[in-house]
Amino acid sequence: MNTFPVPGALLAATALLLACAAPADAGPTARAGGDHLYLTVTKGDAHSSDTRGTLLSCDPPQGHARAAEACAQLRAVKGDIDAVPDRHLYCSTLYAPVTADARGRWNGRPVNYRRTFSNACLLAARTGAVFALDGLPGSRRTAAT
């Protein structure tokens, strides 16, 4: 009668697979330490493909040209993007919608933010430097800011 050590071998193989698979779920968000948000801004309607995005990390600030300012604004409001103080900008009434989306963690809590603004100027006025992604109006500091 032949016996095979299948249960022991199966257990060892399973343990090895689990040990190797543990770091596999460490995506860009998991690798970023501290406070971080994956930011996207989509121009146009929901079917638009004109989307820009970046990972905003705040320890140290990086992700876009105004990352240090964005991180300071977020720290001041404990990561609540809706609480970022409005900037006093004169915006046109031109309808050119942009949708801002932020996902990540702030102070150990998940952040899920999504708002559509009538244009990029209103986005900049209501969210400060947070969504100042390169190539968008309001992404660079100007005399009006």
TrEMBL record:
Subunit field text: Homodimer.
Protein name: SSI family serine proteinase inhibitor
SUPFAM superfamilies the UniProt entry points to: Subtilisin inhibitor (SSF55399)
Location within or outside the cell: Secreted
Residue ranges annotated for the Subtilisin inhibitor domain, each copy included: 36-119
Protein source organism: Streptomyces doudnae
Pfam families: SSI (PF00720)
Protein keywords: Disulfide bond, Protease inhibitor, Secreted, Serine protease inhibitor, Signal
GO MF annotation terms: serine-type endopeptidase inhibitor activity
Signal peptide: 1-26
GO cellular component assignments: extracellular region
